[in-house]
Amino acid sequence: MSGVVFALALFGCADDGSACQRLAGPEKSYSSRFECMAAESVALESDAAMAADYPSVFAQCMTRSQLAQIGPGTVDLRKRGASFADAAD
Predict the structure, then answer these.
(1) Chain centre distance of CA 8
(2) pLDDT class for 35, splitting at 50, 70, 90?
(3) Half-sphere exposure of residue 26, counting CA atoms within 13 Å on the CB side?
(4) What is the pLDDT of residues 49-72, one digit of tens each?
(5) How far apart are the C-alpha atoms of 34 and 48, rounded to whole Å?
(6) Which of 44, 41, 39, 72 lies closest to 57, judged by CA?
(7) Are 8 and 40 within 8 A, CB to CB?
C-alpha cells in the first residue's frame, strides 16, 4: 500500500466539463483509487449533487495533494494535462 489517500470531490460544471467549481459538501477519503472510483455513482446521487445549480455535476477522484492544488477556483476537467487520479503527483 502506497499511503496515498484519494478524495472524491463533486464539481458543478458547464455541460462540456469546463468552468467547473468544487461543490460544497462532505468529501470522502479512500485508501485506493479503485475504492474511490467505485463510489462515484453514489456521490452523483447525493443530496449535494442533486441540489447543485449547474448544468452538469461530475464526481472526480484525485489525491489529496491534487485537490489542494485546485483550491476554490475554476477548473477545466476536460484537460488531459491533469491526471486527477494519478498517485504519481
Answers:
(1) 5
(2) very high
(3) 5
(4) 899 898 888 888 888 888 888 877
(5) 22
(6) 44
(7) yes
Q: 6: which 3 cell numbers?
A: 484519494
Residues 19, 74: contact at Cβ < 8 Å? Answer: yes
Q: CA distances (Å), 45 to each of 7, 10, 50, 57, 81, in order?
A: 17, 11, 6, 10, 28
| pLDDT of 75 | 83
Most confident of 21-25, 29-33, 67-71: 29-33
Task: Indicate the average pLDDT of the chain.
Answer: 78
Provide, for the chain, the percentages of residues in helix, strand and coil under a 3-state DSSP scheme, each rounded to the nearest 5: 25, 25, 50
Q: How far apart are CA 89 and CA 78, in angstroms?
A: 18
